Inverse folding.
């Protein structure tokens, strides 16, 4: 998200509020604000096809908003009528009548000469995990099993610290090139991958996942993903080929420790 | 050594007066710095300032060893310690394209405390050498075509090309022999990729880099006079590179009616798409520091053939030995078993063997069991092109349609052109107006890359541009006039309605009266 753009939009809308605009002006301003935000305020940029879809929905809802009450409808139609008939609007009207065709022609030109955008494939970032996986021949029950070293946090802090410290080693030897030093997904190789490596500081990743879910993602990597998560394009390695079970649980401990987050608790079963 | 120590003993008392001015921070500051260091830096730089071998082995350049008091990025003269501000800047800005990250999230106080802690690792900081002053930088004159041309001469007379190469691609005659002070091989910077400069890519930064040198690396400091020549050299180096890498996600194959003869002429006037190449660290045989970091791609097609040209920078062409995409590479942390084997440079383009009807694609590392990839492979030792079908990195077979290839190496740059018939049964077809997934792999023989040990890209798209483009003039006019007409109609209808309404209300009023 681009904070500068966001602030500029907010400032613009607040300034407009002071001018006491009518519903039509206010709705148009909202439309422009949403467009500017989606177009320039989001990193990485929203694909053009998605943008068109969003703007279509926004246009529709604003139209509904403007036509729901009689007063608002009147306000809008009066504004239109006076633009087309009032003497004081003659010059803007002529400018609009002549200018619009040129804008349209220019858009047509752009559309016909621009290269089309590559197809975007949506992907589910957090698909439901399988109930069990096989890790080097052992069945791991993802529903009931939990990080076996998590309890050391209270029962034996020294041993816990050792596991975290091993996790740190594992992370910096294996994960840092993609997920980055600050765990925001901007490692040295991140620029080469699409989708980009996960950002663990983001509250919507590991903070809302269970440790067993992470175990599955780390052990099985991209090849373990279902089709809706585009396993063919994700660079996340299947770490079962490189790491032991303990290493994986340790690196999970380290990821929470480093980002100051807590894993989502397991639901209690009867 | 002993003599030096004796001399020091004589000299130190004299200097220790001056050394009192050295700012080493307070105990609290150093302790606070240590705490942050343990949490954020120790895993790379080591708790005692010596990087741990297990971690250092996956990074090139390796994390700095702070006990030697050697620093690359300084505003001070060669061989001197950096200023406090230099260290702070290094921490805050990091070093792009190395493992050393920028730390924008740390507070100013944290950065200062870290700086004091780093100074505890080398006794030089508290000794007579601790007191340093930054070199002054004369203000830069403006950059002109003449200064750039003059800079080229300065570049030659100072033998920058000895390491950096004639065109600055990092391919000078000495380049393959370079090692840093800690015994690791190191590459001379590629001047055409200014965004990878760790000391920064502005003109002032480049000035500082060659006047102070990068201590610990073979990059020397240069004393060049007069000052105009220093800035001319800066301007020349600056002019070699664009500002941003502009990484692409799509390359367009342009339609042509010419025949395709595997020469560079077929690609004249076509802008390349530049793709980032990163190490394959997903399957065993990982390449933590690949030799190549980007590839320029151009494509053209005619009725019969499609041709794709790849270009990348390499400090030397390895054309002896051999290479293949399915050779077994040693683990990143294992010793390379047979050092008598020699590996040549090699390159591959990858496509899905067939486009599936849905969105599904083969795995980007040489396919998977369900969906395979076509791999156009060229061993640049001169054995021509080979076509592989990949069903996973460890499940590849040499089969498929005929491929032609030409390859040449010139002044630090490989140019490889592949050609295939556009339509081949049971293999990827290149139809006009379609998007075809494409990916690249590059093996640097010098770094002993082979098989899985290589640089790669993820899936990108090759767009088969349409051959005959509709002229936009007619549709433009049609839509323009339609809009004008619509506007006029709306205006007249509205006006008429309103006048009508006014007239009738006037009538009514008249009747009432």
């Amino acid at each position: 998200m681009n904070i500068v753009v966001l602030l500029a939009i907010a400032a613009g809308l607040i300034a407009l509020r002071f001018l006491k605009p009518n519903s039509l002006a206010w709705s148009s301003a909202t439309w422009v604000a949403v467009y500017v935000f989606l177009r320039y305020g989001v990193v990485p940029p929203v694909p053009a096809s998605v943008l068109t879809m969003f703007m279509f929905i926004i246009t529709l809802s604003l139209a509904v908003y403007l036509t729901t009450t009689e007063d608002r409808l009147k306000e809008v139609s009066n504004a239109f009528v006076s633009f087309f008939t009032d003497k004081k609007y003659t010059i803007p009207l002529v400018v609009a009548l002549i200018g619009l065709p040129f804008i349209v022609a220019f858009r047509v030109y752009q559309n016909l000469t621009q290269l089309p955008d590559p197809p975007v494939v949506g992907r589910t970032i957090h698909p439901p995990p399988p109930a069990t996986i096989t890790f080097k021949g052992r069945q791991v029950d993802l529903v009931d099993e939990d990080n076996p070293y998590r309890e050391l946090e209270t029962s034996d802090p020294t041993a816990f610290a050792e596991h975290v410290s091993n996790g740190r080693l594992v992370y910096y030897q294996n994960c840092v090139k993609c997920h980055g030093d600050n765990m925001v997904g901007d490692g040295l190789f991140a620029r080469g991958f699409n989708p980009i490596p996960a950002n663990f500081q983001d509250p919507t990743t590991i903070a809302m996942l269970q440790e067993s879910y992470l175990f599955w993602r780390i052990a099985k990597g991209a090849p373990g993903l279902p089709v809706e998560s585009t396993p063919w394009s994700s660079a996340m390695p299947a770490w079962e080929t490189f790491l032991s079970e303990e290493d994986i649980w340790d690196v999970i401990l380290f990821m929470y420790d480093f980002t100051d987050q807590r894993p989502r608790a397991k639901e209690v079963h009867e | 050594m002993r003599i030096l120590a004796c001399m020091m003993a004589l000299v130190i008392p004299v200097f220790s007066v001056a050394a009192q001015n050295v700012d080493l921070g307070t105990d609290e500051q150093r302790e606070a710095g240590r705490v942050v260091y343990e949490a954020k830096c120790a895993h790379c730089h080591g708790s005692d300032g010596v990087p741990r071998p297990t971690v250092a082995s996956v990074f090139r350049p390796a994390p700095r060893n702070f006990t030697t008091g050697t620093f690359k990025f300084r505003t001070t003269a060669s061989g001197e310690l950096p200023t406090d501000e230099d260290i702070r800047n290094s921490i805050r800005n990091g070093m792009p394209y190395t493992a050393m990250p920028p730390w924008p999230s740390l507070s100013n106080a944290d950065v200062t405390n870290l700086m004091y802690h780093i100074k505890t690792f080398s006794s030089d900081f508290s000794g007579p050498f601790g007191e340093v002053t930054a070199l002054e930088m004369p203000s830069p004159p403006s950059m002109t075509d003449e200064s750039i041309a003059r800079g080229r001469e300065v570049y030659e007379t100072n033998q920058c090309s000895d390491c950096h190469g004639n065109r600055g691609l990092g391919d000078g005659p000495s380049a393959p022999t370079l090692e840093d002070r800690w015994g690791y091989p190191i590459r001379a910077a590629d001047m055409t990729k200014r965004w990878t400069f760790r000391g920064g890519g502005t003109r002032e930064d480049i000035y500082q880099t060659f006047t102070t040198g990068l201590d610990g690396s073979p990059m020397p400091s240069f004393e060049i006079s007069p000052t105009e020549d220093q800035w001319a050299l800066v301007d020349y180096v600056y002019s070699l590179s664009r500002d941003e890498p502009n990484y692409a996600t799509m390359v367009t194959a342009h339609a042509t009616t010419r025949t395709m003869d595997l020469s560079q002429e077929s690609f004249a006037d076509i802008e390349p798409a530049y793709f980032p190449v990163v190490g394959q660290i997903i399957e065993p045989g990982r390449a933590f520091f690949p030799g190549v970091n980007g590839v320029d791609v151009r494509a053209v097609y005619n009725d019969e053939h499609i041709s794709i040209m790849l270009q990348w920078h390499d400090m030397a062409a390895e054309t002896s030995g051999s290479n293949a995409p399915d050779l077994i590479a040693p683990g990143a942390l294992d010793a390379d078993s047979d050092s008598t084997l020699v590996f040549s440079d090699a390159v591959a383009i990858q496509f899905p063997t067939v486009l599936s009807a849905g969105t599904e694609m083969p795995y980007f590392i040489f396919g998977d069991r369900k969906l395979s990839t076509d791999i156009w492979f060229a061993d640049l030792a001169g054995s021509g092109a080979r076509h592989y079908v990949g069903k996973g990195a460890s499940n590849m077979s040499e089969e498929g349609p005929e491929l032609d290839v030409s390859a040449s190496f010139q002044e630090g740059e490989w140019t490889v052109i592949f050609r295939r018939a556009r339509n081949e049964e049971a293999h990827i077809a290149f139809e006009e107006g379609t998007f075809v997934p494409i990916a690249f792999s590059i093996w640097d023989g010098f770094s002993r890359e082979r098989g899985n040990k290589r640089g790669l890209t993820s899936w990108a798209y090759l767009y088969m541009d349409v051959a005959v483009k509709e002229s936009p003039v007619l549709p433009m006019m049609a839509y323009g006039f339609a809009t004008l007409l619509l506007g006029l109609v709306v205006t007249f209808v509205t006006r008429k309605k309103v006048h009508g309404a006014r007239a009738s209300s006037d009538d009514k009023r008249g009747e009432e009266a």
